[in-house]
């Protein structure tokens, strides 16, 4: 009887597995068509100058407007896109779209001076990424200094020489590079010295329990001090409360991003936010 139970259990498990495989395959088929069907959208989350409250830039965050499943967050399809290689075309689209949008905003609102765009390790490893970026810059006539590429710490770990070469090429184009989710990966500090980096983003997991959690307060202070002394600028991500904001301000942190200021929104809503917020703040700080 025990054996029989075991067998039933196994076949039940198999059925669940193959159902998963079918769903997985269907999602992949749909993702292949998502680009040409214009179902991918860029959302934008404000980045705030902590001294003035002015919106000085945005992070571009991708969404999939699925015909039946609604708005699908990136964590549900970026890994699949990476496995299948679809990230190359999706990532290039995201880059082109974000650059075009940022160029338009910067021209009319010069205080908006930075667009941060997430780049997957696969894009860096499997394509002539710097050439792609150069092509997009040429098409859009965009000032390269408003573009910042966000690379996660784990990307830095892999294939170091190629990463170093690509980063150097990107720097020559005049764009800047940020390390995303800093503190969650395992990049050795010597990498930081060797790579041409501009900015460190302190991961949300350290910000979440500020200021009460003594360990997180120590880690955040240490990351900030190290980053500043190495000549990097610092952005704190995931700021949700005024207590967190105060802690970061006291530390000297210049820039923050989080639900306290704004959720990621579509481009129309972002423009409205930019204009309304900055009219108010610029008047106050004039
Ligand atoms: P990330 O780059 O670390 O982006 C920050 C994530 O934290 C975003 O989730 C954002 O909505 C969320 N967030 C921002 N402020 C807060 C806050 O105050 N509280 C909380 N709880 N969350 C906050 P999202 O948009 O779901 O993106 C998740 C991840 O997907 C990103 O993490 C990034 O790694 C990846 N991703 C997004 N867009 C792209 C893209 O165009 N290309 C690639 N390769 N990856 C992307
Ligand atoms: Mg990011
Ligand atoms: Mg991040
Ligand atoms: Mg993060």
Automatic annotation (TrEMBL):
<protein>
    <submittedName>
        <fullName>EAL domain-containing protein</fullName>
    </submittedName>
</protein>
<feature type="domain" description="EAL">
    <location>
        <begin position="24"/>
        <end position="278"/>
    </location>
</feature>
């Amino acid at each position: 009887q025990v054996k029989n139970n075991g067998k039933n259990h196994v076949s039940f498990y198999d059925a669940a597995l193959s159902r998963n495989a079918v769903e997985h395959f269907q999602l992949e088929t749909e993702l292949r068509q998502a680009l040409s069907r214009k179902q991918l959208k860029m959302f934008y989350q404000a980045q705030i100058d902590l001294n003035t409250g002015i919106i000085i830039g945005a992070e571009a965050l991708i969404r999939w407007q699925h015909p039946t499943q609604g708005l699908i967050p990136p964590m549900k399809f970026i890994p699949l896109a990476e496995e299948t290689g679809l990230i190359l075309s999706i990532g290039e689209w995201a880059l082109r779209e974000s650059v075009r949008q940022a160029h338009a905003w910067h021209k009319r609102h010069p205080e908006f001076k930075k667009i941060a765009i997430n780049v997957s390790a696969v894009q860096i490893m499997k394509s002539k990424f710097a050439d792609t970026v150069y092509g997009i810059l040429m098409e859009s006539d965009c000032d390269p200094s408003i573009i910042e590429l966000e690379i996660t710490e784990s990307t830095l770990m892999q294939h170091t020489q190629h990463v170093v070469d690509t980063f150097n090429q990107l720097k020559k184009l005049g764009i800047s590079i940020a390390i995303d989710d800093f503190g969650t990966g395992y990049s050795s500090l010597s990498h930081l010295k060797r790579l041409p980096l501009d900015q460190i983003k302190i991961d949300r997991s350290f910000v979440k329990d500020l200021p009460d959690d003594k360990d997180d307060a120590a880690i955040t202070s240490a990351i900030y001090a190290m980053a500043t002394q190495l000549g990097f600028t610092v952005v704190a991500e995931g700021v949700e409360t005024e207590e967190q904001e105060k802690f970061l301000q006291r530390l000297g942190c210049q820039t923050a991003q989080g639900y306290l200021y704004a959720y990621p929104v579509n481009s129309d809503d972002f423009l409205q936010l930019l204009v309304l917020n900055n009219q108010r703040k610029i008047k106050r700080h004039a």
